[in-house]
Automatic annotation (TrEMBL), chain A:
This is Cobalamin import ATP-binding protein BtuD. One of its GO terms (cellular component) is plasma membrane. It is found in: Cell membrane. Its main location: membrane.
UniProtKB/TrEMBL annotation, chain B:
The chain crosses the membrane at residues 24-48, 99-116, 128-147, 153-171, 183-205, 273-300, 315-334, 341-361. This is Cobalamin import system permease protein BtuC. The complex is composed of two ATP-binding proteins (BtuD), two transmembrane proteins (BtuC) and a solute-binding protein (BtuF). Required for corrinoid utilization. Probably part of the ABC transporter complex BtuCDF involved in cobalamin (vitamin B12) import. Probably involved in the translocation of the substrate across the membrane. It comes from Haloarcula mannanilytica. GO terms for molecular function: transmembrane transporter activity. Keywords: Cell membrane, Membrane, Transmembrane, Transmembrane helix, Transport.
């Protein structure tokens, strides 16, 4: 795998400072090197030798069809699935060398489907995000309280604070889970399909929160998105995956093209430039052979295709 | 302006905390009321005719309450003072310890049930469903029939048996990690096998009275419990419950499911195992002195959760009060309803618990999810 166009420099110190996105853009928050990730039940790894550098303080979106390995990559990055080979560096340090709570203070991950007990309150659920910051015998401190309040405010769920989780709508529940992840107060946050199954209102809310996290908290966010338009509009970088390998990556304007949509998603589509970034108008599905006519499978897994256009 | 907003939020949070605390206080007070009522009945009535005055005179007799000698007899197993009258003997050595054992057993069953429900994230889980009771029960039955000289060690042995059964359940359920559903299924399997062995044991007992006591024990009974049972159960109960309250934060995180607990930095399998160990110990302490009393560990956590919510600390606190109230209350029925015949309390909890469960099944849509 060749180096990509994204700036690639090891972070030298641990704590992310309050510097603006410009100053931090030259650093990588999360570095995957020749990563091989799979499930213990399957013989073949899902992600087979991929290299990825996630720039610090930016939003990186993973897109790709169902089963392309987006979630698996996310799990590999957070050491939820132990890589079979390769390594992941967080702030220049291997993620598997962190003590588990220590890692959870730096790297947050919200999975696609979450279930909380119906009978706890929103505030209690958000407070669970403070777990990695608390010692075994420690109870809630003032800084926990502050972080919980901030997270609740940032996710815009103040009015739900005392409601039981079981009484919330799907969209509200997702906002509360994101509040929990914010309360965890990490440098890097991985979100697995945070907008799938939500109505447009809540989808936009979630993406707004992601923007706020980047702009106000200098948080690095990596998220899996099914909606290409959302990726185009909100992400600083887009990574397109197919069959466990990266087809393209870079700023949305470069990555999201007609050719890529045909290659990766097997759809015929036009891409319109708008003030909100490139917008995709899907036209019709392509049969498998058509979409793969430009490149054979083996070529694609070995090298990144040249920038289309 | 912001300050005003903050203060409003604080006020609001305080009010909501007051509300949840007050529901917990309600559970506690209600439970204490039931417990006091049950105690009144248990002490006042029974096979031996005592007037109310005699019975309560004995309870609050300062000669006993402040007698070091008497307490040494109760708690350390020394001989009772010779000056005990028959009334004092009936009240202090028969009626009161039975209540005390009921309190300990009820607390243990309720708290361990709550813990098992949290770690399997299944409201239908209880020590019974996870095979723990049957494992512990088998050991107790073997001790009862063959090695009666090690009786004081029964909770430890029962905990080992329950722990072994739970370990077996874990091994069977293990497939790249466990899941709540597989745990419950494996628990049913192991429980069935151990239960069969228990029943098979009966055919090897020659002594009819042992069969009778084993039978009563299998149904779960506080019959003939006295200070010896208190002495057996108390230390293990205190230990297990203290540990349970230490890990409430961990329970809260475990209740969010494996994925989330992992992302919050918890070593899920290890923690689940350790917490289960606490619950096994607690269950064993109850089973060792009272046998297999069903439904308490299932119903009490459920009732408490409905009232005070799913926060582990409040849930366990509520169980600590409601468990004893329910069990001692049921024991009143077991002891006095068909006087002079005494039923095992497990039969009463089953008779009450079954319909309650049926009611739940009919009214709750998502029964089973914590």
């Amino acid at each position: 795998m060749q180096d990509n166009e994204m700036p690639h420099k090891r972070a030298s110190c641990g704590e992310s400072t309050g510097a603006g996105p410009d100053a931090t853009a030259s650093r990588t928050a999360l570095d995957a090197d020749e990563l091989v990730v799979g499930y213990p039940t399957a013989d073949e790894p899902v992600i087979d030798g991929q290299t990825l550098a996630v720039p610090e303080g930016e939003v990186t979106a993973l897109i790709g069809p169902n089963g392309s390995g987006k979630s698996t990559l996310l799990k590999g990055l957070s050491n939820r699935l132990e890589p079979e080979d390769g390594r992941v560096l967080l702030d220049g340090r291997r993620v598997d060398s962190f003590e588990s709570k220590e890692l959870a203070r730096k790297l947050g991950r919200l999975s696609q489907q979450n279930t909380a007990p119906d009978t706890i309150s929103v505030e209690e659920l958000v407070e669970r995000g403070r777990y990695p910051h608390q010692g075994f015998f420690e109870s809630r401190t003032e800084s926990d309280e502050r972080a919980v309040n901030e997270a609740i405010a940032m996710a815009g769920v103040e009015h739900l604070r005392d409601r039981e989780v079981g009484t919330l709508s799907g969209g509200q529940t997702q906002l509360v889970w994101i509040a929990m992840a914010i309360a965890q107060d990490t440098d890097v946050l991985l979100l697995d399909e945070p907008t799938t199954f939500l109505d447009p209102h809540h989808q936009l809310k979630v993406m707004q929160i992601v923007e706020t996290l980047r702009d106000d908290s200098q948080m690095t966010v990596v998220l899996v998105l099914h909606d290409i338009a959302q990726a185009a509009r909100y992400a600083d970088n887009v990574v397109a995956l197919k069959d466990g390998s990266m087809e393209a990556r870079g700023p949305p304007e470069e990555v999201i093209t007609k050719q890529l949509l045909a290659d990766v998603f097997d759809i015929k589509a036009t891409v319109i430039e708008t003030e909100y970034g490139p917008q995709v108008v899907p036209i019709e599905p392509l049969d498998d052979d058509e979409s793969q006519s430009s490149l054979s499978r083996s070529e694609r897994t070995e090298s990144r295709p040249d920038s289309p256009d | 302006m912001a300050e005003l907003f903050d203060r409003l939020a604080d006020r609001q949070a305080a009010a909501s905390r007051w509300y949840t605390d007050s529901t917990l206080a309600g559970v506690a007070l209600g439970s204490i009321a039931v417990l006091v009522g049950a105690t009144l009945l248990q002490v006042s009535f029974g096979a031996f005719p005592l007037t109310l005055g005699e019975a309560w005179g004995a309870v609050f007799d300062p000669r006993i309450l402040f007698s070091l000698e008497a307490w040494r007899g109760f708690l350390l197993g020394a001989d009772n003072p010779e000056w005990f009258t028959q009334q004092q003997h009936i009240v202090w050595n028969i009626r009161l310890p039975r209540i005390l054992v009921g309190v300990l057993v009820g607390a243990n069953l309720a708290v361990s049930g709550a813990i098992f429900q949290i770690i399997t994230r299944n409201e239908l889980a209880s020590p019974y469903i996870l095979g723990v009771s049957d494992g512990a029960g088998l050991v107790v039955l073997v001790v009862l029939t063959a090695f009666s000289e090690v009786l004081p060690l029964v909770p430890v042995l029962a905990a080992i048996g329950g722990g072994a059964a739970f370990l077996l359940v874990y091994v069977i359920a293990w497939k790249n990690g466990t899941s709540p559903v597989r745990l419950v299924l494996a628990g049913v399997i192991v429980g069935t096998v151990f239960g069969s062995v228990q029943r098979a044991l009966f055919f090897f007992i020659d002594d009819l009275s042992t069969v009778m006591s084993a039978q009563a024990w299998l149904s779960g009974s506080l019959l003939n419990t006295d200070w010896a049972e208190v002495r057996i159960a108390l230390p293990f109960t205190v230990l297990a419950l203290a540990l349970a309250f230490v890990v409430t934060k961990e329970l809260d995180v475990l209740a969010l499911g494996e994925e989330t607990a992992d992302s919050l930095g918890m070593p899920v399998e290890k923690m689940r195992f350790a917490v289960a160990g606490i619950a096994v110990l607690s269950t064993a302490a109850a089973i060792a002195v009272a046998g297999l009393i069903g439904f308490v560990g299932l119903i009490v956590p459920h009732m408490v959760r409905n009232v005070v919510g799913g926060d582990s600390r409040r849930l366990l606190l509520g169980c600590l009060f409601l468990g004893p109230a329910l069990l001692v209350g049921a024991d009143v029925g077991a002891r006095l309803a068909l006087n002079p015949i005494q039923l095992p309390v497990g039969i009463i909890t089953g008779l009450v618990g079954g319909p309650y469960f049926l009611y739940l099944m009919r009214t709750t849509e998502n029964l089973g999810e914590v």
